[in-house]
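Changelog note: in this version the structure field was regenerated for every chain. One regenerated record is shown below for reference.
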Amino acid sequence: MRVLYPLLLVMMVFGVLAAAPCAPHVVEKQVVPVRREIKVSLIGENLARKPKEGPSVQSMIDYWTRAMDREIGNKPDLVVLPEISDIWLGLSPQEKPIWLEQRGDAILKAFQAYAAAHRCYLVYPTYRSLGQGTYANTAIVIDRAGDVVGVYDKFQPTVRDLGNPAMTVRPGTRPLVLNTDFGRLGVMICFDLNFEGALDLYREAKPDVLVFPSYYDGGFFRQMWAASCESWVVASTVGRLAKSIVDPAGAQVCHEVAPVTTVTRTINTNARVIHWDFNDDKVAAAKAKYGATLEVANSGDTQLALLSSKSAGKPIDSILAEFGIESWRDYKARSSSARTDRVNQFLMDDLLHRYVDAGRIAGVVSVLSTDDYQEAYDCVGWADLENRVPMTPDTLFAVFSMTKTFTGAAIMCAIDEGKISLDDPVSKYLPEFADVKMKDGSVPRRPLTVRDLTSHVNGFRGGPRAVNRDIPIREVARMLAAQPLVTQPGEVFSYGTATIDAAAACLEVAVGKPYEAYLKEHILDPLGMKDTTFNPTPEQVTRLVKAYTSDDRPLKPAADGCAEQLRFPKAQRVYPVPGGGLFSTPRDMVRFSQMLAHHGEWKGTRLISRKTFDEVFAVKQTPKHILNPYTCGSWLYGDWFGHEGAMRTDQRANLKTGQSRVFFIQTENKAGSAFFQLKREWHQVADQIQGTSETAFGN
């Protein structure tokens, strides 16, 4: 070896020899972690000094085996060696790569055999060759069977390591947290401890135990990491540096310094950190029941405590649940959420009040909903300005074209039942459409389809008025069929209401029952939308909003054609208008929006199959050459899905995040600038609160 080693050095210097990659085979295992008491052995000997006769792989193995043997009689579950433990003390920067080439994977195999023989997990820190003269400062995790189950590369090597010309060290990019039979085990190395970027990664990964092989002590940073991650931090450091253990509440429970170089301690991963706020009596009650099997360890001035279950059959989480004890993690999340909710509340309130208090609008209701159906209502201003009736979640509004999305949803239900298809010719259900002609008297190049009606590419213009409709849907369809087509089917987008009514007439024939009955049965009733109707009851009329102009001084009652929809009682019978006749409340509408955001499901009740929703309802149905992103009765705004109403109501559902939003106001159809400015700002504030990408403004 005295001859071979200098020869290898010369070959390395002249670039003849490149270290072969050392990538240990990682065995992926499905392990169910069971948090419990375990023994941890920290092996913190000084690095072995290079022998005079030259480095020997076997002598390195023997050195660390002797060190581990001092603790192995304690039957540890986890053994941790110090950072880059298999580098000889005294090697020059140029000699290290040569030694690593000589070492190969022999030491790894020896440690695998040791772990298997003693049925323990073993963390082996080393330099790992990545090929082409590059290395990683690595920790290899070996399980009780002797298999490599994880490899971690140091996230933050030192500046000296990164700038070492003799060994190019590549930083790691990800944390290592893996399931073991005693909990989730994470690994960090030495200098990582000083950097928030590494801490953030592990805080998110939620390990139960963090091993810390190191060349330096780490000091209070160990406690900071333990408390931040709510994890045991077990530090195995070289030589005279402390072998230490910090519990998940940040309390140091072991701190052994020279001459002690190896130590074994028991830790309990079946534990949770709590804050004493609101938990005093609950912990006392739990302690009274479970006695010595429930251990309570205070961390000091932080007001934190570590609750540990010493019973293998009693998970600490079940004890917390039994007595309603809130963990520190949950308490922080609840406090943070409460603060965010309050900040967001004032953010939205300030925006809406600014417009109402300035007299630019009469009133507005905003509802933002999370993916788990939590709703935030902001009701500002007046439903009846003259009589000072406030806006509420149950104020009734005319939602006009928002009705189109309801009709589309009902058609999706019929598609699920196999009773209708968007590709069906309209004449299959409404024979009068077989004779539709172009305005020059010619026959259309192809028959009209249900899709043409629902996506506004049918070629019709106009149709019977929607406000106070005094004719049934089938008659609307007949009147529409008597009109000529202005453009060929599928060629031009031309938004309208009567064509959606004709699609609803197709639905009636297909399902064999009135449109409004089918809508109620399949959409309104499952969602509990008791205030959504085409014909408000006398009680509902008492909650009906009044419509006003915007930006007038003072505001005036709306006097356009749409405002007629709000006048009760009616002089004649009013029929449903599937393209624009519904009345609804913010409380009802948010449920419909939530259902859309969850791809056809609401709180466990599926109204539309996921397949139909994703492949039909949430897909642009207008032809490729038409830019308007319209589907079956609804607009697509990127990730958002929804519709506005003529008197300025709006609902959006985010198909990506599961969130939704509803904006209810009642102004003239030709609203003043106040509405458009407010609507744009409302979307911006809602995006900020919900953390979503910008949605298209719409109308």
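Spot check on this record: The chain has 19 helices and 27 strands. The chain has a mean pLDDT of 92.
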